Amino acid sequence: MKSIKVGILYICTGKYSVFWDRFYRNSEKFFFKEKGVEKNYFVFTDDENIKPSQFVHVYKRSPQGFPLDSLMRFEIFLSIQNVLKEMDYVFFLNSNMDFVDYVGKEILPKNQLGLMGVLHPGYYNKDKKVLPYERNEKSTAFIPFKRKVKYHYFMGGFNGGKTDSFLRLCNECNENIKKDQNKGILACFHDESHINKYFFNKDIHILDSSYGYPEDWALSIEPKCIILNKSKHFGNYFIKEYANPFLLPSPFEKNNIFKKAINIIKRKLNK
């Protein structure tokens, strides 16, 4: 295999830093073990116990609260884009992702677009009509019903690809989120809605949900990367953090607040 540099983007602010040691340990054990691969971790955290090393690059980041911690991640990544350009490939993983089997060159996109995505485990084998795209036509993440296209719904917790392709995704999603903010709009599933809009009807290197397998679920596939159950690992903190889904930060819209609350609850149950 040709020598390549792989960048791993990881955000673990606040209590999410509890996942770092496990993620790093299992990434070193299972992720890109092929010869000729140099892995670099780009960690955004406020945890002083996470120390930089030769291949672990730590950037100070304070928690912004839900949903800004995930919604604004494209802006975070763009803040170090000059460093990321030294990588051949870049992949983002949620802090509660955990490798449990070998994952390597099979995830590298060979298509012209140069991006990969993981089918959301809650929707990948369901009817196309129930896919939870953003349906507010005022949002830049809007995807209309009844389009004759290839339907896929991707999870937001694991994606990436060729560095230049990924940075283009970050730039467009970041600009679209800012446009929505200026109009007081919050896409239904935040950054994931914008990723799905960017991926919509494009030639994406698709990975099945074995690369995003929820912990304790019983799917008909063998897991390669699991989504750790936050309520199981956080306990009371998780309950307090999401107990009041109505507390959405301004400047986002407050219209249809009950619908948004239901959507947030459903999404948390599906993780």
Strand content: 15-25%
> Order of strands across the widest beta sheet?
3-2-1-4-7-6-8
Number of distinct beta strands: 10
**Oligomeric grouping of the chains:** single chain
Low-pLDDT ranges: 242-262
How much is the radius of gyration in Å? 18 Å
Main beta-sheet strand count, sense and barrel state: 7 strands, mixed
What string gives the helices and strands in order? Answer: EHEEHHHEEEEHHEEEHHH
Helical stretch count?
Answer: 9
How much is the average pLDDT?
85
User: Helix proportion of residues, in percent?
Assistant: 25-40%
Through-space gap between termini: 35 Å
General form: globular
Helix- and strand-based class? alpha/beta
Key terms:
three-stranded mixed β-sheet; 271 residues; seven-stranded mixed β-sheet
How would you characterize the overall build of this protein?
There is one protein chain. By secondary structure, the chain is an alpha/beta fold. Helices cover 30% and strands 19% of the residues. It has nine helices and ten strands. The protein has helices spanning 20-30, 68-71, 73-78, 81-84, 163-182, 191-199, 230-234, 236-242, 257-270; strands spanning 4-11, 37-45, 56-60, 89-93, 97-99, 115-119, 154-162, 205-207, 213-214, 225-227. The strands form two sheets. Strands 3-2-1-4-7-6-8 form a seven-stranded mixed sheet. The protein has a three-stranded mixed sheet with strand order 5-10-9. α5 (163-182) crosses α6 (191-199). The longest helix has 20 residues, at 163-182. The protein is globular and about 50 Å long. The two termini are 35 Å apart. Residues 242-262 have low confidence and may be disordered.
